[in-house]
Amino acid sequence: MSALVTPRQAAERLCALTAILRRTDIERTFQPEDDEKIDEEACQQALEDENDLRGWLDARKLWGLLSPREVELLQTPMGLWSRQQILNGLWRLESAGILLWTLGDLPACPPFDENFPPEDIHPMLPWFRDVETFFSVAILREEDEIRATRDLAELWHWRARTSQVARSPKKYGVTVGQLQEIVRRSADAGERDHLFTPIDHDFPAFQKPYRELNEDQLWMATSIALERHYILNWLCGYAEEWDDVPTDT
Questions:
Q1: How distant is the alpha carbon of residue 241 from its chain centre?
Q2: Is 209 helix (H, G, I), strand (E, B) or coil?
Q3: Dihedral sign for Cα atoms in the order 53, 243, 137, 150
């Protein structure tokens, strides 16, 4: 079993994600939704925000905490992120939420059909904080609690992937009936282990059995599970480099 990251490493990763989340907000200003116009005043403020971000990274010597892909993103000229890169940046809020929970700043994680509320996360990010003090006082939750949450994230990510398999069962060499039986057994085991209360022998999501989720709900549940699985695998030492974390199920 790999060792957990250190408290300082977790705090440093939160700083790196803070930079990505700040830049994501800036990119959204330059690339509004299709039915919205670019707000020139907001863009001017975004330019100032980007200067503040770079100043924070320079002054606190934080560039070295970023992964190669994150450095590449932050070095990309403003307004040139792809839509997918912006979306990926937005989902990093889930990783930040898990880190804040791991560091004891949040009492609990939302269920796997609910995002961490942005209004709870953003005020707690170490933006312009005395980061050396932040690093030195960081403390992790109990290891057993972190690992149990990692296992739960992997389980929910597995359930999301079985939904994808169910669309083309022959491709994976299984039948729909076999998949339903596997899910039923897993859901019943989840109830026995006090992980959740199944609905009709399936994982509960959006107040219905997981198999009944619509496309938007399935996309959201899958994204939540994937992002939490990723950060928790990193916390539990499944990869040394942030860009290379596996999420096998």
A1: 16
A2: strand
A3: positive
Give residue 183's domain range: 143-244
- Measured distance CA(46)–CA(121) in Å, rounded: 20
Check if the beta carbon of residue 81 is closer than 8 Å to that of residue 73.
yes
204: tokens are 């509960």
| Other residues' Cβ atoms within 10 Å of the Cβ of residue 42 | 15
Query: Which residue blocks in the chain are alpha helix, DSSP H?
Result: 7-30, 40-59, 68-75, 83-102, 118-121, 131-136, 143-167, 176-192, 215-235
Q: Which residues of the chain have pLDDT under 50?
A: none
131 and 159 in a common domain: no
**Under 8 Å CB-to-CB from 34, ≥6 apart: which residues?**
none
- CA dist 23 and 15 (Å) reads 13
Residues 126, 151, single domain; the answer is: no
Exposure string (b/e) for 142-169, b if CB count within 10 Å is 16 or more? eeeebeebbebbbbbbbbbbbbeeeeee
Determine which helix (DSSP H) or strand (DSSP E) holds 241, and give its type and residue range.
Answer: none
Do 129 and 161 sit in the same domain of this protein? Answer: no
Which residues is 204 bridged to in the sheet? Answer: 209
Helix axes 7-30, 40-59, angle to 10 degrees: 160
Residues 27 and 43 in one domain: yes
Tokens linked to 139: 């403390």
82 vs 63: CA distance, rounded Å: 22
Instruction: Among 74, 103, 136, give the residue marking a domain's end.
Output: 136
Q: How far apart are the C-alpha atoms of 21 and 85, rounded to whole Å? A: 11
